[in-house]
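Quick one, tokens below:
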């Protein structure tokens, strides 16, 4: 668990650096593209391994501690969350388009 938490910190730090490099590039710092490429390469290497670790070596083994009923309830909550998130996203898109 501690390893995953640290990896989340690393991922957030890298994404933050990527966004900062993008902003530097947008204001004309052409050499920022090198940082953008470097951070993207880092993320390309990092996330597949991290997701594999979460899915196969953490979340799946944790499922053994839950009953079938609890698993079903968690799955339904997850579906509801996804539906709300997608709905909220497209509401924002429509609001922006209507402006």
């Amino acid at each position: 668990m501690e390893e995953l938490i640290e990896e989340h910190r690393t991922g957030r730090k890298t994404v933050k650096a990527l966004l900062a490099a993008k902003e530097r590039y947008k204001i004309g710092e052409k050499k920022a593209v090198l940082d953008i490429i470097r951070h993207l390469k880092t993320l390309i290497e990092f996330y597949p391994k991290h997701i594999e670790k979460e899915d196969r070596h953490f979340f799946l083994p944790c499922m053994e501690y839950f009953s079938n009923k609890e698993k079903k309830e968690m799955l339904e909550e997850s579906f509801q969350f996804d539906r709300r998130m997608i709905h909220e996203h497209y509401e924002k898109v429509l609001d922006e388009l209507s402006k």
